[in-house]
Write a structure and sequence with these properties.
The complex is a heterodimer of chains A (106) and B (122).
Chain A: E1 9-12, E2 18-23, E3 33-37, E4 44-47, E5 61-66, E6 69-74, E7 83-91, E8 94-97, E9 101-105
Parallel strand pairs in A: 1-9
Antiparallel strand pairs in A: 2-6, 3-4, 3-7, 5-6, 7-8, 7-9
Chain B: E1 3-6, E2 10-12, E3 18-25, E4 33-39, E5 46-51, E6 58-60, E7 68-73, E8 78-83, E9 92-99, E10 111-112, E11 116-120
Parallel strand pairs in B: 2-11
Antiparallel strand pairs in B: 1-3, 3-8, 4-5, 4-9, 5-6, 7-8, 9-10, 9-11
The chains are: A mainly beta (106), B mainly beta (122).
């Protein structure tokens, strides 16, 4: 089965840029989606198909995907961006999630 | 606006079954697949399966094959997930969500229910 690897935790200073990676075998050939989950809440889609933002998601959120790594980038990080972020791909008619990365804004 | 509203929390004994519902509104129910995703306490997201509300076709994750049944009632725009032979490690929040299709291109889960806590305890 396909596996996605994310770092357990990433920290960023307030106002700086955070990058969260998602590793997978030739993930660049797949569509990668990213979700934000705050404590006690359901996940929210923040990036779809590598680099597209749903309506209502700030343009501080962006994504890229190439080779074996996809990256979620959060610019000008705010306290409200503290959350767990999950990447997700489709693989042979199954949905696969990464283990999640806890983003801390210092 | 799109809404997925799930049924309330459940407490079940080991070996029992649980049925969780997910009522959709704000869009044409049969146009989107409904997925079930669970999250054990302090853990990550685990995909369980989907149903195509239009055809009734389903696909389940290998980890759950034989224990999970997903159905729908198009007359009331509601999907259901039944998990059988419950164990203590099935204690989790169960979410429904939707995708436009079951292909790579359309695999984003763009709306989620509020979650249903299922507790399995003797």
């Amino acid at each position: 089965s396909y596996e996605l690897t994310q770092p357990l935790a990433v920290s960023v200073a307030l106002g700086q840029t955070a990058r969260i990676t998602c590793g997978g075998n030739n993930i660049g050939g797949k569509n990668v989606h990213w979700y934000q989950q705050k404590p006690g809440q359901a996940p929210v889609l923040v990036i779809y198909r590598d680099d597209h933002r749903p309506s209502g998601i700030p343009d501080r959120f962006s994504g890229s995907n190439s080779g074996n790594t996809a990256t979620l980038t959060i610019s000008r990080a705010q306290a409200g961006d503290e959350a767990v972020y999950y990447c997700q791909v489709w693989d042979r008619n199954t949905w696969v999630f990464g283990g999640g990365t806890k983003l801390t804004v210092l | 606006q799109v809404q997925l509203v799930q049924s309330g929390a459940e407490v079940k004994k080991p070996g029992a079954s649980v049925k969780v519902s997910c009522r959709a509104s704000g869009y044409n129910f049969t146009d989107y697949y409904i997925h079930w995703v669970r999250q054990a306490p302090g853990q990550g997201l685990e995909w369980m399966g989907w149903i195509n509300p239009n055809s009734g076709g389903t696909n389940d994750a290998q980890n759950f094959q034989g224990r999970v049944t997903v159905t729908r009632d198009t007359s009331i725009s509601t999907a259901y997930m039944v998990l059988g032979r419950l164990r203590s490690d099935d204690t989790a929040i169960y979410y429904c969500s939707r995708s436009y299709h079951n292909t790579d291109y359309y695999s984003a889960l763009d709306s989620w229910g509020q979650g249903t806590l299922v507790t399995v305890s003797s």
